[in-house]
Amino acid sequence: MFDLTGQVALVTGSSRGIGLAAATALGRQGATVVLNGRDGQALQQTAAALCEQGIKARALPFDIADIPQATAAVDQLLADVGKIDIFYSNAGIQHREPLLSVALADFERVLFANLTSQWALGRHIAGHMVKQNYGRIVFTGSVTAFLGRPGITAYTAAKSALHGLVRQWSAELAESGITINAIAPGYIKTELTRKLWDDAEFTSWLYDRVPQKRWGEPEDIASALVFLAAKESGFVTGQVLTVDGGMTACM
Ligand code: NDP
Predict the structure, then answer these.
(1) GO terms for molecular function, please (predicted)?
(2) Atom of ligand 1 minimally distant from the CA of 188
(3) Which residues contact 160 (CB under 8 A, 6 or more apart)?
(4) What pLDDT is attached to residue 173?
(5) Segment 169-196, tens digit of pLDDT
(6) Which CATH superfamily is domain 8-250 in?
(7) CA geometry: angle 49, 52, 55, nearest 5 deg
(8) pLDDT in the model for residue 210
(9) pLDDT below 70 — which residues of the chain?
(10) Which residue of 4, 164, 204, 244 sits 20 to 30 Å from the alpha carbon of 211, by its own alpha carbon?
(11) Which ligand 1 atom sits closest to the C-alpha of 187?
(12) Taking CB atoms and a 6 Å cutoff, what residues make up the pocket around ligand 1?
């Protein structure tokens, strides 16, 4: 099961963290993986490192928040390889600042990168998938959409909207051979959360809420992604798969 040989997978935000673990896992299942981030040189090195592990990988640098640049890069990829079977829309940014001081520009920047640009690129790729009558689209949501945490209004609003988006798109594209789902990670050890790793007060807060009493690892998300990306999960669509060590189940 879950053999992805011959498939092409584009993973945004895959120079490190969850995206890199996801791309590695898809590559190990046989997919050709296309890595994305903003630093082209770093991406080339990461793609080369994956190739050394026997994974078919290539780099496609673009900024997800620059929609013309992103869609042009995807068009070039399609011209080169002919198709995208799996799209993991994973890149995301955060800005932490209390509600009463955060600037409108920062609110809009985070909302644009985490929602509007993902809608635009996802729609662009969905148009191609409709023509091939097959596709797997997965967005990265977040447990913050269920929690309410201070200082990240725009981030939480965008992630909540992505959870709604997958339900909407799954209905609209139901007969196109495409499934659309989201993964809502709990607290995962990546650069995004680095400042919290050694924060004893935060760790105590977290372990009080996570029954497994541990941080998630990027590979925990990658396994869920492989399932949603596989042909075998074709009846699973419009879902938000929460991967959080039981955190939100036990709130
Ligand atoms: P990291 O900060 O470790 O990685 C983010 C990745 O996104 C990097 O590869 C980065 O590369 C890329 N990226 C950032 N901005 C852009 C952009 N504008 N255009 C293209 N690429 C971009 O984060 P995580 O791996 O932790 O996060 C991945 C996703 O998971 C995000 O959507 C995040 O919100 C979500 N998430 C994470 C959780 C966690 O606990 N870690 C919990 C819930 C959700 P570069 O900087 O080189 O562009």
Answers:
(1) oxidoreductase activity
(2) 40
(3) 141, 145
(4) 97
(5) 999 999 999 999 999 999 999 999 999 9
(6) NAD(P)-binding Rossmann-like Domain (3.40.50.720)
(7) 90
(8) 97
(9) none
(10) 164
(11) 40
(12) 12-19, 36-39, 63-65, 90-93, 113, 140, 142, 185, 187-188, 190-193
pTM metric for this prediction: 0.98
The pLDDT, as a whole number, for residue 247 is 97
Contacts of 36 (CB under 8 A, 6+ apart): 10, 11, 12, 13, 14, 15, 19, 43, 59, 60, 61, 62, 64, 91
Q: Residue 59 corresponds to which tokens in the numbers above?
A: 């780099």
Distance of CA 251 to the CA centre of its chain: 24
Q: Tokens 């050694």 label which residue?
A: 198
| Among the listed residues 190, 180, 248, 182, the one whose alpha carbon sits nearest the alpha carbon of residue 219 | 190
Q: What is the ipTM of this complex?
A: 0.99
From ligand 1's centre to the CA of 140, what distance in Å? 9
Task: List the beta bridge partners of residue 6.
Answer: none
